[in-house]
Amino acid sequence: xxxxxxxSVTAVTAIFFGCSGNSNTAKNENIKTSGDTTSTTAAAIxxxxxxxKPAFEGQTRIKAVTTTTAYKVEKIAExxxxxxxxxALPDGKLLLTEKSGYMEIHNADGALVKKITGFPKVDDNGxxxxxxxxxxxxFATNKTIYWSFSEKYGKGNLTAVAKGQLNENDSMIxxxxxxxxxxxxxxxxxxxxxRLIFDKEGYLFVSSGERSVLEGRxxxxxxxxxxxxxxxxxxxxxxxxxxxxxxxxxAKPEIYSYGHRNPQSLDFNPVTGDLWEAEFGPQGGDELNxxxxxxxxxxxxxxxxxxxxxxKIGDAIQQKEGMEQxxxxxxxxxxxxxxxFYTGDAIPEWKNNLFISGLSSTRIVRLVIENxxxxxxxxxxxxxxxxxxxxxxxxxxLYAVSDFGILFRxxxx
Length: 413
Description:
By secondary structure, this protein is mainly β. The protein has a single domain (5-412), classed as Neuraminidase. The protein is built from three helices and 25 strands. It has helices at 42-46, 139-142, 214-219; strands at 5-9, 71-77, 83-88, 94-98, 102-106, 112-116, 130-135, 144-153, 156-165, 174-181, 196-198, 204-208, 229-233, 255-258, 262-268, 275-280, 286-291, 328-330, 336-341, 354-358, 363-370, 373-380, 388-394, 397-402, 407-412. The strands form six sheets. The chain has a five-stranded antiparallel β-sheet with strand order 1-2-25-24-23, with no helix packed on it. Strand 9 and strand 10 (174-181) form a beta hairpin. The relative contact order is 0.18. The model is unreliable at 1-28 and 30-45 (pLDDT under 50).
């Protein structure tokens, strides 16, 4: 049953300085299962978990900004199950993934158009399931989509990518085929990463997490492992030409960058063309990065977070030569799901701003970026108390889904 509960907003409902508050429990996506139990006390929101100094001014807790244009937030659908990703189709309809293994097409008002099944079996325990989805750059003619999912494989499970044809008139995906696996498999229900995005050359970027276990954590620094990486592959799942390690015999040729923890956010900056990424830190230390080929983003050697039992991670260092600094970090955490740069014209002050969905923080953050630096931060949807899983845009309108199956539309009032 579709619901349209309207919330009028003329300014931000609350100001958020990069803090969200995470409890030190075993059920938190920054540890394991998506921040399912999170402290929301005022003290937890205000106080950082670690007291590490940023590497440069403005790297965290930047000044607050406020949207001056009047906008509205609508709940246009509810009870959607367990959505993980949302993207817009060329005609403005919305394609959503559901963790248990199917997709849905909704119209711009939230009504269900079609349920799509026939996907390869997913392992939907913990954080696993049918995860992200991306359209082929030639989708208008070939109807091909790509999706990531957690797959039982060998003696464990892993992040896999498949492709097939999506026809809105059919209820089944056609010709599904797995094209890539982030090997080796491990036994874990957590940290699959799993964001997908195509670049202008038609190559597919794929993020993978380090699976939350110590064996995977150390492998995020190994170039012969698929743990904690961002890959760049062809439409057939092969290493894309020009990849930084393609001629290195001891490295996986698909790797584009490494040293990541659990990256679930990817988008291209419309001004610079750079690939931006956000990833979960442990307790504190969620990161926003600009991804460059061949670079090491440091996990678990450098981090602005601590273990969930309060102990330090490794040597408790935040900087090391040869490892990249985040453009920005959050402590307490945001728990970043999906993200999108706003390229619409409906709300001009949002132009080229970055919007990131927050899970344990139960909000969307808007970041104002100038010269590759975050210069302002605003919190949206703070009154909803929903774990915002993913966000997308179409024609100047933002759409977001929550873990508990609510579809939001955010548009000019």
